[in-house]
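Example 3.2
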Amino acid sequence: MKPRAKSVGRRRFLKTAAGAAGALALAPTIIPSSALGRDGHVAPSERIVVGGIGIGGRGQYDLGCFLEQKDVQFVAVCDVKEARRTTIKKMVDTHYGNDQCAMIRDFRELLDRQDIDAVLIATGPNWHATASMYAAKAGKDIY
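Structure, written as tokens:
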């Protein structure tokens, strides 16, 4: 004959589970200071994520001004000319010390990105209005 398994009553189980949950709730949670906007960092919720469209000579100057701002994060460059995309990517990646700036050829693909809040549009006059209208329809802020 097998020994009978010890059963745990419902009340005892709930009391034990509630005690464990309470103890777990009191355990410290580690949050990096950068996530809270301390130690010279900007909290992610206060950061403006920007992408650039058609960044030539004038746009590079504007981008340089954007990169100086601690609350701006530039994440993607879009231009039909590969040489310009590569130049801007190198400039941004050097500034941030990584290789995460995306290079995109079609500005509509950049505007489809949900992580981008605003766009720097520095195209020539033939495309500036078109890119601006598409950006507005996509809900992006425009510079």
